[in-house]
Amino acid sequence: MNKTLVLSASLDNLEPFLAHVRSLVTSCGMDAKSLYPVELSLEEVLVNVISYAYPNEEKGNIEVSCSWDSQQGLAIQIVDYGTAFDPLAKPDPDTDLSLDERQIGGLGIFLTKKMMDKVTYERSLGKNIFTMIKQPSG
């Protein structure tokens, strides 16, 4: 099963994107415990794309595709045609430092990497392609 939703890169579309993925998770029978990290991770990635992919009032779309396979789990692919940016290239924040000592940024992607089973990024044909996989719990 594979579903794709394409909407403009706007905070107004955050909930429709989340609902799109939520409907697949529900219909495929993935356990509810796995839904929270999926939604939190998806929201983090989408807010980053909405905030930074299309600078200077440039308008663009985001494509969110999700597929389910009982062996591989849930795969979510977020695609935008904006500025090239690999969120995985930045080093993880030092969580041992106090909040005052930490640099701003990077914590959301760090949490996404911890909550999802696999995350990848690639730049291909002018597109940023970020993929997250959550394997079925078992």
Question: What key attributes describe this structure?
Answer:
five-stranded antiparallel sheet; 5 strands; globular; 138 residues; 33% helix
Structure report:
The chain has helices at 14-28, 32-52, 107-115; strands at residues 2-8, 61-69, 73-80, 118-124, 127-134. The chain is of the alpha+beta class and 138 residues long. It has one domain: Histidine kinase-like ATPase, C-terminal domain (Heat Shock Protein 90, 2-Layer Sandwich). Strands 1-2-3-5-4 form a five-stranded antiparallel beta sheet, with helices on one face. A hairpin with a 2-residue loop joins β4 and β5. The longest helix is centred in the N-terminal third of the chain and has 21 residues, at 32-52.
Task: Please give the structural blueprint.
Blueprint: E1 2-8, H1 14-28, H2 32-52, E2 61-69, E3 73-80, H3 107-115, E4 118-124, E5 127-134
Antiparallel strand pairs: 1-2, 2-3, 3-5, 4-5
Q: Low-confidence segments, ≥5 residues, pLDDT <50? A: none
Write down the Rg.
15 Å
Tell me the overall shape.
globular
State the fourth-level CATH superfamily: Histidine kinase-like ATPase, C-terminal domain
Amino-to-carboxy terminus distance? 20 Å
**Structural class estimated from helices and strands:** alpha+beta
**Given the structure, what is the number of helices?**
3
